[in-house]
């Protein structure tokens, strides 16, 4: 599947629709803050150097694997709620997809949430690091599956 | 005469900006960099539009104009800081200035086993160059502790070590705590008791100090001071190492080529006298001119008044923040000296989350370890939020910031 503008997984499209109703930056942040509780977490006892995402101001960790159906599964946690909220959105975007699709999934989906407007470049870079890392993991999993 | 804040703010175009969030900018990240008045922007634009040329040597009109403006800027800046122009070495900023000190003076005047005394309060810029020197030539680094209760240097520990120290590197004013260190006492002790009574060499990281302090470099008695133009309304990518008369002759060239050469042969070369000996390559011409314009701009004010204004805002803000449940303020803002930096943390809301909600409200504050991780560890934290004030900030902005922060905490807690 060639994911991109106008053609997103249904679970991500729902989030995009939700954000598109909100014009106020404070409210958008609150939504992202609340999204943190929807994140499938990586328990803190499993945090290690291998799971750590570099380039984030907060402590952020992700672990990538395949679910029982062979779909991609990313779990993650962060000590900052907004970072964890971003992870939750990413999970809605990519979890369950074939890993080869995740390996090329466009990071531009955040633009559709209006997050680039209100998130600092620092955060955007941190998220970019996280998503780049997730795509690399997906590529490895796809190659392993093949 | 009180500062005319309305007129001052009108000089800074960016302060009228409305952010993508639809909210007006309240810029409280001045310890990271200050905004630039249109006089500085115009001076740099004029240079590029009318005078742009490489400096020194060429005989054409533009080159002569550019050279005059560049060297004229050096005179303006050195007059401001109180030293002779040839001892003001242009660098890209404070970090490069301290690296220049470590390479051009440290490598040829320190040797294995010499004690370099630093403090736990240092910015990484006054730590890493000395770590590199320790690794390369074997100097021994020691550190003056910071008292996490008073946020001040342990001067008893300083006094206990100073006799063994050949070199002292100390931050003049902390970028995290807003605390001004007792630099006069540090210099006096270093000169009278340092290095077994022969006197220790002193470098002051003055990045935060120059925002509101003219230093009076020669009168102060330090050997080196490092500073950046952009902390005082000047451009980024520009700064200087200020060097005493005693030390300038002890420095050896560091970077080679371009402007530092007097005459070159295939197998050797001779070098320009200072300052050009230490300014290899085409210099930062527009930036020097911009920095001088910033000093011309600040010259219209009484800098004691500027400092008092900044400290009043910091003191006022710190007092308001302390009243908010869950907020801890780091640093001492009660004294008459210091800076406009107010670091704080909430006990349950992550500093990064708070920073995003502050940004959404239009408030630009800094979040993170502020390039002072050893200090953070001493304080038992990994990051703070930091609001920092400058010349153009108002009490209304400080109050709006505190009100917004309270609102965010109420919404999220």
Question: What does this protein look like?
Answer:
The complex is a heterodimer of chains A (146) and B (413). Chain A has helices spanning 10-20, 25-35, 81-94, 99-102, 109-112, 115-118, 121-145; strands at 60-66, 72-78. Chain A is mostly helical and 146 residues long. Chain A has one domain (10-145): Sufe protein. Chain: A (Alpha-Beta Complex), CATH 3.90.1010.10. Chain A has a two-stranded antiparallel ribbon. In chain A, a hairpin with a 5-residue loop joins strand 1 (60-66) and strand 2. In chain A, helix 1 crosses helix 3. The longest helix of chain A is centred in the C-terminal third of the chain and has 25 residues, at 121-145. Chain B is an alpha/beta fold and 413 residues long. Chain B folds into 2 domains: 5-30 and 302-412, Aspartate Aminotransferase, domain 1 (Alpha-Beta Complex), CATH 3.90.1150; 43-298, Aspartate Aminotransferase, domain 2, CATH 3.40.640. Chain B is 39% helix and 17% strand. Chain B is built from 14 helices and 17 strands. Chain B has helices spanning 5-10, 38-51, 61-81, 94-109, 128-137, 155-162, 183-193, 217-220, 245-248, 285-298, 303-322, 351-360, 373-379, 395-412, and strands at 26-27, 88-91, 115-119, 140-144, 146-147, 152-153, 165-171, 201-205, 224-228, 239-243, 261-264, 269-271, 327-330, 341-346, 363-364, 366-368, 384-388. In chain B, the strands form 5 sheets. Chain B has a 7-stranded mixed β-sheet with strand order 2-10-9-8-7-3-4, sandwiched between helices. In chain B, strands 13-14-17-16 form a 4-stranded antiparallel β-sheet, covered by helices on one side. Chain B has a two-stranded parallel sheet with strand order 1-15. The longest helix of chain B has 21 residues, at 61-81. The mean pLDDT of chain B is 95. The chains are: A mainly alpha (146), B alpha/beta (413). The interface between A and B is medium-sized, with 19 and 19 residues.
């Amino acid at each position: 599947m060639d994911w991109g503008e106008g053609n997103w997984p249904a679970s991500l499209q729902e989030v995009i629709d939700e954000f598109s109703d909100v014009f106020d930056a404070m409210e958008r942040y609150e939504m992202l803050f609340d999204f943190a509780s929807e994140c499938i977490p990586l328990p803190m006892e499993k945090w290690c150097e291998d799971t750590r995402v570099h380039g984030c101001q907060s402590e952020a960790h992700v672990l990538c694997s395949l679910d029982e159906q062979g779909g991609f599964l990313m779990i993650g946690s962060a000590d900052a709620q907004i970072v964890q909220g971003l992870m939750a959105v990413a999970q809605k975007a990519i979890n369950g997809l074939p890993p080869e699709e995740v390996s090329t999934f466009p990071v531009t989906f955040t633009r559709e949430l209006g997050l680039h407007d209100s998130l600092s470049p620092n955060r955007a870079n941190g998220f970019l690091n996280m998503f780049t890392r997730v795509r690399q993991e997906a590529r490895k999993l796809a190659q392993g599956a093949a | 005469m009180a500062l005319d804040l309305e007129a001052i703010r009108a000089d800074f175009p960016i302060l009228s900006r409305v952010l993508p969030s639809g909210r007006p900018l309240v810029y409280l990240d001045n310890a990271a960099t200050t905004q630039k008045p249109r006089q500085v922007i115009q001076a740099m634009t004029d240079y590029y539009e009318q005078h742009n040329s490489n400096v020194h040597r060429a005989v054409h009109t533009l080159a002569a104009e550019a050279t005059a403006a560049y060297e004229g800027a050096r005179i303006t800046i050195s007059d401001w800081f109180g030293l002779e122009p040839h001892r003001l070495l242009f660098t890209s900023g404070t970090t490069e200035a301290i690296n220049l000190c470590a390479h051009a003076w440290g490598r040829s005047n320190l040797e294995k086993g010499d004690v370099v005394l630093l403090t736990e309060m240092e910015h990484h810029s006054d730590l890493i160059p000395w770590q590199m020197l320790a690794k390369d030539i074997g100097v021994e680094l020691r550190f003056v502790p910071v008292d996490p209760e008073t946020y001040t240097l342990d001067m008893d520990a300083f006094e206990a070590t100073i006799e063994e120290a050949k070199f002292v590197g100390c931050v003049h004013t902390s970028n995290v705590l807003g605390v001004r260190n007792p630099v006069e006492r540090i210099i006096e002790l270093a000169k009278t008791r340092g290095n077994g009574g022969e006197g220790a060499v002193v470098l002051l990281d003055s990045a935060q100090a120059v925002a509101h302090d003219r230093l009076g470099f020669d009168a102060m008695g330090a050997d080196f001071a490092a500073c950046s133009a952009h902390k005082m309304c000047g451009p980024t990518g520009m700064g200087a190492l200020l060097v005493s008369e005693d030390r300038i002759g002890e420095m050896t060239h560091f970077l080679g080529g371009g402007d530092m050469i007097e005459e070159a042969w295939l197998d050797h070369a001779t070098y320009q006298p200072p300052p050009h000996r230490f300014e290899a390559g085409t210099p930062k011409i527009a930036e020097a001119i911009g920095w001088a314009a910033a000093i011309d701009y600040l010259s219209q004010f009484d800098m004691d008044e500027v400092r008092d204004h900044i400290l009043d805002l910091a003191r006022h803000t710190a007092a308001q923040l302390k009243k908010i449940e869950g907020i801890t303020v780091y640093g001492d803002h009660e004294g008459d000296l210091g800076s406009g930096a107010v670091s704080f943390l909430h006990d349950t809301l992550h500093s990064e989350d708070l920073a995003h909600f502050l940004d959404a409200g239009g408030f630009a504050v800094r979040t993170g370890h502020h390039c002072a991780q050893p200090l953070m560890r001493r304080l038992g934290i990994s990051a703070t939020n930091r609001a920092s004030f400058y010349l153009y900030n108002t009490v209304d902005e400080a109050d709006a910031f505190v009100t917004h922060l309270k609102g965010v905490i109420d919404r999220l807690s």
